[in-house]
Amino acid sequence: MKLLFPLIFLVFFTGNLYAQKSPIKFGDVPIEDLKMTRYSKDSSAAAVVLADYGEAYINIMSSSVKMTTTRHVRIKILTKEGMKWGDVAILLRKSGSTGELVTSLKATTYNLADGKIVESKMNKDAVFRDKFNRNFIQQKFTMPDVKEGSVIEYAYNVSSDFWTYFPSWEFQRTIPTIWSEYWAMIPEFFHYEKYMQGYLTVSVNEVKPMNMAGTAVNAHHWVVKDAPAFKEEPFMTSKEDFVSRINFALSYVTFPGMPVQEIMGSWAKLNKELTEDEDFGRVIEKSGFLKEATAKVTAGVTDPLQKIEAIHRYVKENVAWDGTEDYYPGDLKKILEKKKGTSGDINVLLASMLDKAGIPVDMVLLSTRSHGFIRQAYPMTQQFNYVICAARIQDKVLLLDATEKYLPYTVIPERCLNGQGLVISKTNHGWIPIETKVKAKSTINADLKIAGDAEITGTVTISDEGYNARSTRTEYHASGEKEFTKNFLEAKRWEATKSEYADLHDLNKPVRQVHTITIPDHASAAGDIIYINPFVTNQLKQNPFKHDTRTFPIDYGVPSETVYMFKLTIPEVIRLTKCHKAK
């Protein structure tokens, strides 16, 4: 973003004026840290962060602004599993030819040999880059000579032109952290909204006014001590929603003698910008080349829902999703030629063809479950990572996504079900709930008989609907019938003489599978008594909620239903003595 600077504003100050005192000095590793064999506050920890220290500050020059971040990390490796912490990735923002740069990178591994500390410094050839997504790349490096008992230490700076994105800071990782400290140095001209998330107690939370080169600076300071490992629990959304972290959002900028420069704005402003964006909102109106293909796909079809289904099927059959979650599309012609694309490519193509068929349609931005919840108080595009379509048929809105080959057009992927979506539209702008009434449903009918002291035989019929049907179809077509059947039977510990499948291609019907089976050792005999568990499949082998307390809210994603019918034929020589009643 380009700022307006006052003509007399020639302040120049850089990060060396900001530098605070780090709790650790690079290379000065206490021998006690190397002798440590376990972390007393979490004996199961594979590694522990001894210290994680960071500073972020804004460099103001005569006509530009840069962001600089420094980080210094020291980690103790306790087990072989913990050695993976020696592989480090730094996420760097990019836009076109502009990107963040890592500078002053240094990394050393420390080991004990005959009671003495041995240092292994990282070579430059251990550093490389790869693409993360459209907006980010990763700079990765591998620490040298990492083993059980090592202490690894690395430090680096990141120089950035993207000063509107003040770096957030996570105080918690999936391993314990003894000390996490962050300084955010913000000149008085820049007004950032700050919000803390998570459940940890912050030991230090203060703001220190400072003066740098005649400019007032607010030094925000946070410390979290003895942070436990962040452990994901069953049936929760992304850890991004719950890990302890401080976040920033630039609201506005005020320079002396200049009008206020709004940065964050409002959702209405963001909607206007996106509808007028040549690479997003205007893509649909510029896709006239799709008229001919759309006419062929919908030839002879007059019902709007049937048109939607036909176009949805065409997009799925002609463009495969590459697994990338994004909302900006590429060149739609090239996407059709490549027959592969991102979620943005596919769903903007879908919307464009619906538009050519005369179906009123808008784009809906959302954040997937793995990306985290949207905070509606902060109108920022970086909260989104996905786009779907909203087709309007009379007074109803139909949400559409064409990335999943084995979901019908009326069902959107589970990853999209994460609260609200933002409709981008000149006439229908606003929030819309992203929800479903479709279930992950299975109906199981077991018709069995006792064939021996411990063996039962018969048929099991399984009918999968909704999201369960999608899972079954995906696995079946990915592996083929033979491999699918083999894996299925091995997982159930069944022996089958015949397995049959039906309706694997008609997405509007349940998937049906029938197995003629023998289950050895399913029954157990004790003297003249035989015990039989009626649940031959879908048994809950252990309670997923193992802890005495639950920190995070429970979120099942989609409604789930399992109907289980069990018929057992008993030989005349056997008498039923006890049967547990349903509760």
Which structural traits does this protein have?
583 residues; mainly beta; Immunoglobulin-like; C8orf32 fold; 3 domains; eight-stranded mixed beta sheet; five-stranded antiparallel beta sheet; 8 helices; 30 strands; 14% helix; globular
Structure summary:
With 583 residues, the protein is mostly beta strands. It is built from 8 helices and 30 strands.
Fold topology:
Layout: H1 31-35, E1 47-60, E2 65-77, E3 87-95, E4 98-99, E5 101-113, E6 116-121, E7 127-131, E8 136-142, E9 151-160, E10 169-170, E11 177-187, E12 190-197, E13 204-212, E14 215-227, E15 245-253, E16 261-262, H2 267-275, H3 291-297, H4 304-318, E17 320-321, H5 332-338, E18 340-341, H6 343-356, E19 361-366, E20 386-393, E21 396-400, E22 419-424, E23 430-434, E24 440-450, E25 456-465, H7 466-479, H8 481-492, E26 495-502, E27 511-519, E28 523-526, E29 529-532, E30 560-569
Task: Provide structural commentary.
It is a single chain. Helices cover 14% and strands 38% of the residues. With 583 residues, the chain is mostly beta strands. The protein has 3 domains: 238 residues, Immunoglobulin-like (Sandwich), CATH 2.60.40; 168 residues, C8orf32 fold, CATH 3.10.620.30; 130 residues, no CATH class. The strands form 7 sheets. An 8-stranded mixed β-sheet has the order 6-5-9-2-1-11-14-13. The radius of gyration is 29 Å and the shape is globular. The N and C termini lie far apart (63 Å). About 1% of the residues have low confidence.
